[in-house]
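The material for today's practical consists of a large collection of protein records. Backbone structure tokens are a discrete shorthand for how the chain folds in space. An example says more than a description, so a record of this kind follows:
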Amino acid sequence: MAETFDNTEKLVDPEDSEKTGKEDREPVNGSETEDFDLLAVKAPAGSASAGEEVPADKESGQDPENAGISPEDEEIINSFLTPLDEYAKKEKARFKKNQKILGGCYEWLGSFVYALLFVVVLFTFILRLVRVQGESMWPTLNSEDYLVISNLAYEPKTGDIVVLQVPSYKSGHPLIKRVIATGGQKVHIDYENWTVTVDGVTLNETYLNRDSRPMSRLDNCPTDFVVKEGYVFVMGDNRNNSTDSRSSLIGQIDERYLMGRVVFRLFSLSPLGTETNPLLSPFAESKDAD
């Protein structure tokens, strides 16, 4: 008898499907079944676990870094790496050299800045630069000489070369003269013999520019007088070509108008062969045309 097959598709409920799957996994004839999971199979002792990647060095016994590299390839790689190592060493040495040079430059620059600041402070508060114009102090000083003067804790005394100002004379521009006497000292001037006596002592004025004429009295400067306290009496070394305390235009100088004493001559632009005082060799510009 022929068998009849039903070709119609049978609809299966998802819940029934789950139950069916459970039933399929239930033990048959009272025996239990195990899920066979390849990943759960334990690897033999001492070998890599399942699913774990086995390192190449453990498989082949080679160095991991050189695994799969033949000696020829290694030689080629070394031929490239050796020049690079040498270049890196040279660059490192050059860097250290440049760093040393740069450090030296910074050190030099710092020293220069400190030196510059020192000079600025020195010539702002302690020293001043003056320039001589005129022949009233010749032959000791020459026109266009540059001098350094200082007024730091200065007390005038006989023989000092000073820079001074007279507000009523030539708009108070600076003059350069020599101190003959200070406050309270008695002065006697012998115009015929070119001698000056201070407190009974004749000055040894070897620096004078003498001539055959008597020393000029200018505005009939007295022969004997006493310098007022707080004042100084000054004259130029070129006595017959100097406007100084013998003149009523200048007279005795208030010590407050003394700008400073000449410390040394910085340099001279005078022609060679001109007689000068080598011991006077420091700032404002000072003009002395008298």
